Amino acid sequence: MELRQELENIKGWLHQGAISYEQAEKMAKPIIKALNEKSIEIAKKCGVRPKKFNFASLMR
């Protein structure tokens, strides 16, 4: 759950105004990619469609 914690840190910085939206998106992109890859892997094992994450939904 280290990836999720890092996203929560980015979200906090974004809401505090410490970083801009573009900076936050750039920082979160590799983390979101890793989460989506893991989601696809798990979905294949279970025989279902993966639930992919995007930046906007994770920053809400």
Structural class by sheet pairing and helices = mainly alpha
Number of strands: 0
Beta-strand content bin: under 5%
Instruction: Determine Rg (CA atoms, Å).
Output: 13 Å
Q: So what's the overall shape? A: elongated
What is the count of DSSP helices, taking H or I runs of 4+ residues? Answer: 3
Give the fraction of residues assigned to helices.
over 70%
Order of helices and strands: HHH
Explain what the structure shows.
By secondary structure, the protein is an all-alpha fold. It contains 3 helices and no strands. The protein has helices at 2-16, 21-46, 55-58. Helix 1 packs antiparallel against helix 2. The longest helix has 26 residues, at 21-46. The radius of gyration is 13 Å and the shape is elongated.
Task: Please give the structural blueprint.
Blueprint: H1 2-16, H2 21-46, H3 55-58
Helix pairs in contact: 1-2
Keywords:
0% strand, single chain, mainly alpha, 60 residues
Task: Give me a quick take on this structure.
This protein has 60 residues and is mostly helical.
